[in-house]
Amino acid sequence: MAVARTVAPELGLGLPENAMQAEAKAPARVSAGNAAYAIKTLLIGGVAGCTAKTVVAPLDRVKILFQTHNARFAKYSGTHFGLFKAGAAIYREYGVRGLFQGHSMQLARIFPYAAIKFMTYEQLKMSLRQRVRDKHLRNFLAGSLCGAISLSISYPLDMIRVRMAYGTPAAGVPAERVRTVVRNIYHEQAHRFGFLNFFRGFPLSLMGIIPYGGVSFLTHEYLLSLGRGRFAAVTAVPAGEQHARSRRRKKRELKAWAELTAGGISGVVAQTVSYPIELVRRRMQIAGVHSPAERVRATQIIRQVWSSAGARGFFVGLTIGYVKVVPMFAVSFYTYEKLKAIFDLD
Question: What is the pLDDT of residues 281-293, one digit of tens each?
């Protein structure tokens, strides 16, 4: 039976009429190479980051107090159930608001950080595909670079957030406002130009984000590939149960527990690799509270930690770090992947 054909005048090609109608009805595919994809990954990345940080905000507050060796909470560090004891002490003295102190600044920081991180990761991964053949190396490089870019943009906000979380005013005394903390940091005399005070510990942070960002994305992508390949029978959602909008996606959708597990494991691996650098960075960030006019160097902090506690000192708070990063990475990657499925993004 002959098939009716029409001619595309611009191209001079004959196409089946029914094929052209189907193509006209199908929604335009959003791929990593266009602006719509970049904008969507930017927005859902920011939402995923804020969701994850809200879940672990109380743990993050206690972790900062432990890392910076806050005098009022140092007694809980390294003890059995010290995390929960410190959290209970904060709750008794300050209430729920105490557990979320500095969280508004955290959200203001994490939205652009996570948005830029996820968006640039997707774009860098696509760009590196033509230059780096090894998939794992490509994922590591894209993760490291996107982490460095997002950190550079959001670091001053992180500095303010750490200072706010570090503060432990007397009961009944309100916590310092954001503008007060900003003003105090700016007027510290460690640097000639006040804005440089917002970048205390930045070079060290840049060093730390390379293994942290690279390893986290590398591990996550590797675990997802296992879930969609070798263990698909157990971890993948059956084709008939996948989200209605995901029919045009090339990637298979994984079950919720598999997505959450992959994210949690990637967080544990990344945290272990980069934790010593993170601890030194936190100490540098709060150095201005004790010595506003002194420019504290990383080598000074390293010597102090080593002399007081040896190698174990660089891993103070790591247990609470694990408790925090497992749900944080799990929720962050899970939310990101599910939103990608909803918006039909590969």
Answer: 878 777 766 666 6
pLDDT(30) > 80: no
Distance CA 269, CA 264 (A): 9
* CATH number of the domain bearing residue 176: 1.50.40.10
User: pLDDT band for position 16 (50/70/90)?
Assistant: very low
C-alpha dist (Å) from residue 157 to 84, 121, 162? 27, 21, 9
Domain count for the chain = 1
CB neighbours (10 Å) of residue 302? 17
Measuring CA to CA, which residue among 118, 110, 191, 216 is closest to residue 155?
Answer: 110
Tell me the per-residue pLDDT of 184-213, one tens digit each, with 9 for 90 and over: 888 887 777 788 888 887 888 888 888 999
Confidence (pTM): 0.72
Do 300 and 224 form a contact (C-beta atoms < 8 A)?
no
What are residue 16's DSSP bridge partners? 5
Task: Tell me whether residue 324 is in a domain.
Answer: yes
Q: Does the residue 12 lie in any domain?
A: no
Within 13 Å of residue 75, how many CA atoms lie on the same side as its CB? 3
Q: Is residue 16 part of a domain?
A: no
Question: Which domain range does residue 126 map to?
Answer: 30-238+252-342
Give the angle 124-127-132 at the CA atoms, nearest 5°.
100
pLDDT of residue 10: 39
Tokens of 222: 């590797």
